[in-house]
Design goal:
22 strands, Metallo-beta-lactamase, Chain A, seven-stranded mixed beta sheet, Rossmann fold
Length: 461
């Protein structure tokens, strides 16, 4: 078996690993590279390998940095299966369409402003085709990928539908198993179940390392932190602006705001979900409650987790823009999660200079994104072509991270090692250099053989 690390190699985005075994080629994920426009654009245009060689794709979860180039494959003629879980397929139906739509409007905007830009990577039809190719599998059941290769998903506890992938290749009596972590979640996250590390005897683990160099605040203290930020901002008469991923983070924040509101821990102010994608994603959550974490009190006790009196969802752009003229404190949750696009931009254009407001960062912000510049509290940020003084408060609540921190990553891996006496190697992917080298060092000290493969590096088993 040969693995080629074709994305998320020493960086966080563009997850894609090519597995070649028994004459077949299988992709694990096919995600978008995000970040600096030029660099990302160039990497995104190239398929990870010749399309006619790809026999199957196995997708770990719906985030675009894992799924976002699937429509590129179909636009170039790929027509094989895309294996994933039901919830991931449901989420991809809306997220890939949204990605196609954003690229199209970006293209039109830039062309109108006289910029020479390449056409969108793919269109709506390619996104719909990718969804048609998806084969939905339940967790914990083996399925055949191609001759001599089968796979199984376990719950990664990262976002709804997310999975770690166990690959098993058989050649005569020789069996080789590889585990790909996908993105590893955290125990105790609202709504979704805790990560379930695969218990198979694997030789190789390909593991994410996003937060390999730090620990998060606890999930429980995040709700309190959010409550405090809302109370303080309301007492100043300001707004709480939360850029959030439409899928996962938005629903978790809504869930916590409902719990805080029911406990009267926050004042009764309007809470607005200003993102059509988040609205659609919430509907997918409501169709997949069977995989929610039913050990949580709120999941069992609250009938409608994403609907309550103070909460509203905006539909049109006009409704969204009207929020800017509304008076009084409120919470606005809008995309995109890394502040690279979406309606959060016009809320920041109007609100980032107001010291009464608070911008709450609840997710990972990749290098070269506007979100990262807000985290760094740059005195001036560029929003929709204008320079805006960043005078609003900036609060970072990292307990909502859907990614395991360094301690949780190590425990996840220890659980895998517990049932893998033949584990020989751990390849770290999906992490920036500082995170990878710190995690590599601490795992090496725990007796693992660790490497951080470069882009297109190959490994033979
Ligand atoms: Zn993810």
């Amino acid at each position: 078996m040969e693995i080629e690390f074709a994305g998320a190699a020493r960086e966080v985005t563009g997850s894609c690993h090519i597995v070649r075994v028994n004459g077949k080629t299988v992709l694990l994920d096919c995600g978008l590279f995000q970040g600096r426009r030029g660099d990302a654009e160039q990497k995104n245009r190239q398929p990870p390998c010749p399309i006619d060689r790809i026999d199957a794709v196995i997708l770990s979860h719906a985030h675009l940095d894992h799924s976002g180039r699937l429509p590129l494959l179909t636009s170039l003629g790929y027509s094989g299966p895309i294996h994933t879980t039901k919830a991931t397929a449901d989420l991809c139906a809306i997220m890939l369409a949204d990605s196609a739509h954003l690229q199209e409007s970006d293209f039109q905007f830039l062309s109108r402003h006289g910029r020479a830009v390449d056409p969108p990577l793919y269109g709506l039809r390619d996104a719909a085709r990718a969804e048609e190719l998806m084969e939905r599998h339940p967790y914990d059941e083996w399925f055949d990928v191609c001759t001599g290769l089968r796979a199984r998903f376990t719950d990664a506890g990262h976002i709804l539908g997310s999975a770690a992938i166990v690959l098993e290749a058989a050649n005569g009596s020789a069996v080789t198993r590889v585990i790909f972590s996908g993105d590893v979640g955290r125990p105790g996250l609202p709504i979704i179940r805790d990560p379930d590390p695969p218990r198979d005897d694997a030789e190789l683990v390909i593991m994410e390392s996003t937060y390999g160099n730090r620990d998060h605040e606890s999930v429980a203290s995040s709700r309190d932190h959010l409550g405090r930020v809302v109370r303080e901002t309301v007492s100043r008469g300001g707004r709480v602006l939360i850029p959030a991923f439409a899928v996962g983070r938005t629903q978790e924040i809504v869930y916590d705001l409902q719990v805080l509101w029911r406990e009267k821990a926050i004042p009764s102010i309007p809470i607005v979900i200003d993102s059509p994608l988040a609205t659609a994603a919430t509907e997918v959550f409501e169709r997949n409650t069977d995989i929610f974490d039913h050990t949580e009190d709120a999941v069992r006790e609250i009938d409608k987790l994403f609907r309550f009196e103070r909460l509203s969802y905006t539909a049109s752009t006009a409704e969204s823009k009207a929020l800017n003229t509304q008076i009084g404190p409120m919470v606005v949750i809008a995309g995109s999660g890394m502040v690279e696009g979406g309606r959060i931009l016009h809320h920041l254009l109007n609100g980032a200079a107001n010291p009464r407001n608070t911008i709450v960062i609840v997710g990972f912000q990749a290098e070269h994104t506007l979100g990262r510049r807000i985290v760094a509290r740059r005195p001036v940020i560029r929003v929709l072509g204008s320079d805006v003084e960043l005078r609003a408060g900036v609060e970072i609540i990292n307990g909502y991270s859907a990614h395991a921190d360094r301690t949780e990553l190590a425990s996840w891996l220890d659980a895998v090692r517990g049932t893998s006496p033949h584990l020989r190697k751990v390849c770290l992917v999906h992490g920036e250099e500082a995170a990878q080298s710190a995690l590599s060092e601490s795992l090496t000290a725990r007796g693992y053989f660790v490497s951080c493969p470069a882009w297109h590096e190959k490994l033979s088993l």
